[in-house]
Design a protein that fits this description.
Rossmann fold; 5-stranded parallel beta sheet; 3-stranded antiparallel beta sheet; binds adenosine-5'-diphosphate; binds adenosine monophosphate
């Protein structure tokens, strides 16, 4: 199953995607991480990514879609992935649908969209306190998900850092971009009937619990659908 995690910046998409990926044994594909790797390159593409990311803007669709499609073409993605932060625009969602629909695409129509809802106030506070491990990428919050030793990762002991796009005016810009470009994409998934809203303002464990329940419900619905189709086929064969 492909699990698509959407929501405002700072809603907890990365935190939850990493937890659910560990529990379900699926690869965690984070658009922001893939683009940060491009951004770090001393190439024209790296320069382009840097310009947009440092301004709190979305990286252009053509570049972002190409990077994600390359990742989804890797063998480990063939049984499904957890997509974190992609799509963020309607064009990206359409490109993803097309990519999943290809004969060797990573989906058999069994995706679910999880919309982590949290208010502007909550996500700005979360971004402000976000610290990330330099080495393993684990995400902390200075108050809500604090490391045992200040400034040091619990998992690998490496130092923690704050992202360069975490300045208050850039955070505010990223929220505006979410409202303008990403909310229409959320509606696109809602209309397709694959979107489940999750209250992202709860604590980390309760959000994970609701996400796992939504995934189980979707799997049960897909199995029920498959059984109905099989029963219909058997009935048609018996009638002939
Ligand atoms: P996103 O990937 O959506 O931008 P993150 O997963 O990086 O969000 O989370 C943003 C910040 O909020 C991080 O500091 C993280 O530790 C913290 N955080 C994530 N989920 C919760 C939660 N349910 N309650 C409190 N803080 C959270
Ligand atoms: P994130 O790590 O998800 O907070 O993303 C960090 C930054 O990467 C964003 O502010 C954008 O500049 C860029 N980015 C991440 N995902 C996308 C996407 N799907 N489309 C375009 N830009 C993206």
């Amino acid at each position: 199953m492909n699990i698509i995690v959407v929501g405002p910046p700072g809603a907890g998409k990365g935190t939850q995607s990493a937890r659910v990926a560990r529990i379900l044994g699926l690869p965690h594909v984070a658009a922001g991480d893939l683009l940060r790797a491009v951004r770090a390159q001393d190439t024209p593409l790296g320069y382009t990514a840097r310009q947009y990311m440092d301004a709190g803007q979305l990286v252009p669709d053509d570049l972002t879609i190409r990077i994600i499609e390359q990742r989804l073409a890797q063998p480990d993605a063939k049984d499904g992935v957890i997509l974190d932060g992609f799509p963020r625009t309607v064009s990206q969602a359409r490109a993803l649908d097309a990519s999943f629909a290809r004969p060797n695409g990573a989906s058999k129509g069994d995706e679910i969209g999880l919309y982590l809802k949290a208010s502007r106030e909550v996500v700005l506070e979360r971004m402000k306190g976000r610290w990330i491990c330099q080495q393993c990428g684990r995400v902390y919050h200075i108050l809500h998900v604090a490391p045992t030793e200040a400034g040091q990762c619990d998992v690998c002991g490496a130092p923690l850092f704050q992202r360069s796009d975490e300045a208050p005016e850039i955070q505010a810009r990223r929220y505006e971009v979410y409202e303008q470009d990403t909310l229409p994409m959320v509606d696109y998934y809602r209309q397709r009937g694959i979107l489940v809203e999750i209250n992202g303002e709860q604590d980390v464990e309760n959000v994970t619990r609701d996400i796992l329940a939504a995934i189980d419900a979707r799997k049960a619905a897909l199995i029920a659908l498959e059984l109905r189709v099989m029963a219909k086929r058997l009935q048609t064969a018996a009638d002939q």
